């Protein structure tokens, strides 16, 4: 009885101190009881066990901790948890290892030591479907890499854009030639992506 | 190691009125916008403040619109908002240029104009643009709003006229004619704090009215400064060499981790000379 009361007090204190925060994390609803001023980076790594997001400098210079908040790249080391309540947050884990950029970074040497890579890929996603070299330079100016000299990273992004456009053309052709049920195909795609 | 936050409190207002009430009744609170400066201090362990006011959800402060002849930019407009706004790009292109040189995309997506003003760094990139535009800062409190000319907003190093119960609601920019320019000189094209930053504006005289010259520098004094005597000399039609002589006396740069006073004087002169000679 005493123990229960003690535990209840602890539980109540936590419930009072840490309001539950709702957000969409990597496409799934998440309710998190975290301190509103905790850094998004720490929430992801400690409370959600998503350690793909790295901490580099802790001052918004290196971009290693880049995640997408409502589709826009941000440095998660500079974002308080309270400011992402009700938003869609996407981390490198949200790409499930199947994103064309991830494959391209592997195939074209865009990743060497790997610390900057999750941040590079998240920032590259925000560049849109057909970025020019200038777009890449400007869009990735906030991401530092000490291994590749950047050229391999730009090559990887260009290759991913190419493969993505090729796949889209192929999909369009397939769609035009076959009269398959659109709804069915969508279901199959979702099942494939979430499995 | 992650910074400790457990002893800190966050106030979450639902509206601007809410926020102003909290500032009046619960103060002193530290207003928190995009956190791109505040959280650097937190991560470094140098942040003393423990009570914060979250302004991020106050969408009323995010608008960019015309009110009569004035371009009103809400304090919570991010640098990305400023770069993308057709109004800002058309009316005050030097501000859009300044915003596009603030940090990388990640910082531009979070950092706000109001935050840049409130942080009061002498190296703030948008500040010379606002000074050269003769902008005014709108300060609101529960008691009402007041407007302060941007050139009177800073009183010293990291010191402003903002009272603890006031929020920066936004800035108002008058109609600007003529040519504008913004130049930032740093160690790297992006993501570097400036060694010298300049915004300048030249409006040729029309009819009987005098020419308008505005030259503002960052990183060459304890606050962002307007080189008023240099401006007057140029507006009066004196030669560039005379004006540059006045400028080197007028600014007071120092040696620090980013640059030296000698370099800063030289570059400030070169930037102004570049602006002035390319105007014709």
Describe the structure in your own words.
- The complex is a heterodimer of chains A (195) and B (280).
- By secondary structure, chain A is an alpha+beta fold.
- Helix content of chain A is 45%, strand content 12%.
- Chain A contains seven helices and five strands.
- A five-stranded mixed beta sheet of chain A has the order 2-1-5-3-4, covered by helices on one side.
- In chain A, β3 and β4 form a beta hairpin.
- In chain A, α3 crosses α6.
- The N and C termini of chain A lie far apart (44 Å).
- Chain B has 280 residues and is an alpha+beta fold.
- Chain B has two domains: 112 residues, Uridine Diphospho-n-acetylenolpyruvylglucosamine Reductase, domain 3 (2-Layer Sandwich), CATH 3.30.465.10; 99 residues, 2-Layer Sandwich (Enolase-like, domain 1).
- In chain B, the strands form four sheets. Chain B has a five-stranded antiparallel beta sheet with strand order 4-5-10-6-7.
- Chain B is globular, with a radius of gyration of 19 Å.
- At the A-B interface, α2 and β4 of A face α2 and α6 of B.
């Amino acid at each position: 009885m005493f123990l229960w009361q003690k535990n209840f007090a602890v539980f109540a204190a936590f419930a009072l101190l840490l309001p539950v925060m709702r957000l969409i994390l990597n496409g799934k609803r998440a309710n998190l009881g975290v301190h509103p001023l905790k850094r998004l980076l720490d929430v992801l790594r400690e409370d959600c066990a998503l350690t793909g997001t790295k901490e580099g400098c802790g001052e918004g210079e290196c971009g290693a901790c880049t995640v997408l908040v409502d589709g826009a790249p941000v440095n998660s080391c500079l974002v308080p948890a309270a400011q992402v309540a009700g938003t869609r947050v996407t981390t490198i884990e949200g790409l499930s290892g199947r994103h064309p950029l991830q494959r391209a970074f592997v195939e074209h040497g865009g990743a060497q030591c790997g610390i900057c890579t999750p941040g590079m890929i998240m920032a590259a996603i925000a560049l849109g479907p057909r970025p020019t070299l200038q777009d890449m330079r400007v869009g990735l100016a906030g991401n530092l890499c000490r291994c590749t000299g950047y050229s391999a990273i730009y090559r990887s992004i260009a290759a991913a854009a190419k493969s993505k456009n090729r796949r889209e053309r192929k999909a369009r052709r397939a769609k035009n030639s076959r009269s398959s049920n659109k709804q069915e195909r969508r279901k199959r795609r979702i099942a494939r992506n979430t499995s | 190691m992650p910074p400790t936050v457990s002893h800190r409190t966050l106030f979450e207002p639902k509206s601007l009125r809410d926020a102003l009430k909290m500032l009046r009744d619960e103060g002193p609170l530290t207003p928190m916008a995009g956190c791109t400066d505040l959280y650097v201090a937190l991560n470094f362990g140098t942040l003393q403040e423990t009570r914060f006011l979250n302004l991020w959800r106050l969408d009323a402060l995010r608008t960019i619109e015309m009110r009569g002849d004035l371009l009103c930019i809400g304090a919570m407009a991010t640098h990305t908002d400023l770069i993308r706004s057709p109004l800002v790009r058309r009316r005050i292109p030097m501000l859009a240029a300044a915003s596009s040189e603030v940090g990388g995309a990640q910082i531009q997506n979070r950092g706000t104009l109001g935050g840049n003003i409130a942080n009061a760094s002498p190296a703030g990139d948008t500040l010379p643009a606002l000074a050269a535009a003769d902008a005014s800062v709108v300060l609101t409190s529960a008691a009402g709003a007041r407007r302060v000319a941007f050139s009177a907003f800073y009183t010293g190093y990291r010191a402003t006229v903002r009272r603890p119960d006031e929020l920066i609601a936004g800035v108002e920019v008058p109609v600007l004619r003529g040519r504008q320019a913004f130049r930032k000189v740093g160690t790297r094209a992006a993501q570097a704090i400036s060694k010298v930053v300049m915004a300048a504006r030249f409006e040729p005289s029309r009819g009987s009215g005098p020419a308008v010259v505005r030259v503002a520098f960052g990183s060459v004094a304890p606050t962002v400064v307007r080189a008023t005597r240099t401006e007057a000399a140029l507006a009066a039609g004196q030669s560039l060499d005379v004006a540059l002589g006045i400028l080197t006396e007028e600014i007071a740069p120092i040696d620090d981790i980013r640059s030296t006073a000698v370099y800063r004087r030289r570059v400030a002169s070169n930037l102004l000379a570049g602006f002035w000679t390319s105007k014709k």
